[in-house]
Amino acid sequence: VQLVQSGGGLVQSGGSLRLSCTASEITLDDYAILWFRQAPGKAREGLSCISARDTSTVYADSVKGRFAVSRDNAKNTVYLQMNNLKPDDTAVYYCAGYYSSTYAGWGKGTLVTVSS
To answer: CA dihedral defined by 112, 10, 5, 73, rounded to 10 degrees?
Structure first.
């Protein structure tokens, strides 16, 4: 299953971006959707999760209070709203669909660059 991402780019420190994750083959509401990022030379970091068929969310401490994940089921899309961005948030961001204890699909990643 291929998830399609959009919304990355260059933003100044303190700015905001919204990432989108959608799919054409599956109904995203049936899946928990997780967001990850990987900065150059660093390990992949889990950022957030929104539960399947629910709006329960979990965030890593590094983004808690600044990032928010949400669903728009009418658009079959999950969003990651990122506010108060910092240079340390610079990374490639990925979404993944999780179902029945398996990662069912991944996005190809989108680059977020935060300038100081």
So the answer is: 100
The tokens of 102 are what? 């398996």
Contact 116, 11 (CB under 8 A): no
10: left (phi over 0), alpha (psi -120 to 50) or beta: beta
Average pLDDT of the segment spanning 89-93: 98
Tell me which residue of 18, 30, 26, 20 sits closest to 107, measured CA to CA: 20
Cα 1 to Cα 103: distance, rounded to the nearest angstrom: 10
Q: What is the pLDDT of residues 12-70, one digit of tens each?
A: 999 999 999 999 888 999 999 999 999 999 999 999 999 999 889 999 999 999 999 99
